[in-house]
């Protein structure tokens, strides 16, 4: 059974919307979003079923219902919160913290190999997109395809990006506050930190997807243009590319 994001009075009630129309519009968006998610849970394992064929039009209509900034922001927040909730409830959805251990081990045992791997993040490649492709297991596939179907609705992507940027900062502050409570059991603190780390991993992957979505194309780009783009790209985007891969 699908468990939705809890309703928070302080952030989700009528007082947080500019008008009754805006508030009721968001409620309709929320209902339609969960309707699509429940349908996907039932249908996506059926052979031959296509999310694009079955939901593309409804997804665009749902996102297009947002008529003002407040609606877009609230729906982007709902979308992101539901993604995180479902991923954290399934341990197979996220990668554990052992990756840092592997990187540190590789750095000590084979620094040349690590250097070659790092160069792959900044050296133009003949392969289009991340290699190997980013994986979106389980429920992540629904959220990925939802974003792709809403491709032309740029405002939705902008606010998803803003929410994804702000949540890690909030989580970090939350963890800092937790660490100050000496009465908190060590295991509880570890669990909280692990949930925070996993949340950031999930957000990083989807933030990479959204950030680089405008550059997705089938036409081959010339080597000269690639070099110019790479030279003018901010360093923080290279870092996001690293996280995305």
Number of strands: 0
How many separate structural domains?
1
Q: How would you classify the helix and strand content by structural class?
A: mainly alpha
Total of helices? 11
Radius of gyration: 20 Å
Backbone shape: globular
Fraction of helical residues: 55-70%
Q: Output the helix-strand order.
A: HHHHHHHHHHH
How far is it from the N-terminal to the C-terminal residue, by CA? 32 Å
On the 0 to 100 scale, the average pLDDT is 75
Beta-strand fraction estimate: under 5%
Strand count, sense and barrel status of the largest sheet are: none
Unreliably modeled segments:
236-245
Topology:
Layout: H1 9-12, H2 20-43, H3 51-64, H4 69-89, H5 98-109, H6 111-119, H7 140-149, H8 154-179, H9 186-212, H10 223-232, H11 235-244
Helix pairs in contact: 2-3, 2-4, 3-7, 4-8, 4-9, 5-6, 8-9, 9-11
Task: Give a brief rundown of this model.
It is built from eleven helices and no strands.
Main attributes of the structure:
single chain; 245 residues; mainly alpha; 0% strand; globular; Codanin-1; Putative codanin-1-like
């Amino acid at each position: 059974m699908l468990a939705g994001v809890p309703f928070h009075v302080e952030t989700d009630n009528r007082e947080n919307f500019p008008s009754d129309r805006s508030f009721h519009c968001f409620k309709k968006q929320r209902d339609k979003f969960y309707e699509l998610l429940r349908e996907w849970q039932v249908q996506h394992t059926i052979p031959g079923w296509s999310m694009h064929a079955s939901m593309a039009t409804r997804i665009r209509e749902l996102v297009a219902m947002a008529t003002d900034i407040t609606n877009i922001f609230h729906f982007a927040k709902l979308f992101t919160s539901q993604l995180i909730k479902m991923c954290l409830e399934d341990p197979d959805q996220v990668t554990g913290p052992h990756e840092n251990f592997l990187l540190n081990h590789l750095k000590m045992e084979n620094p040349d190999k690590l250097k070659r791997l790092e160069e792959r993040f900044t050296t133009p490649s003949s392969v289009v997109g991340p290699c190997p492709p980013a994986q979106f297991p389980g429920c992540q596939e629904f959220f990925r395809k939802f974003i792709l179907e809403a491709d032309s609705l740029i405002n939705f992507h902008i606010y998803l990006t803003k929410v994804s940027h702000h949540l890690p900062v909030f989580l970090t502050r939350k963890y800092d506050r937790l660490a100050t409570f000496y009465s908190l059991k060590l295991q509880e603190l570890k669990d909280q930190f692990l949930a925070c780390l996993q949340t950031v991993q999930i957000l990083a992957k989807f933030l990479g997807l959204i950030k680089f979505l405008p550059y997705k194309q089938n036409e081959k780009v010339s080597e000269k243009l690639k070099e110019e783009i790479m030279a003018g790209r901010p360093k923080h985007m290279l870092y996001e590319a690293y996280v995305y891969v």
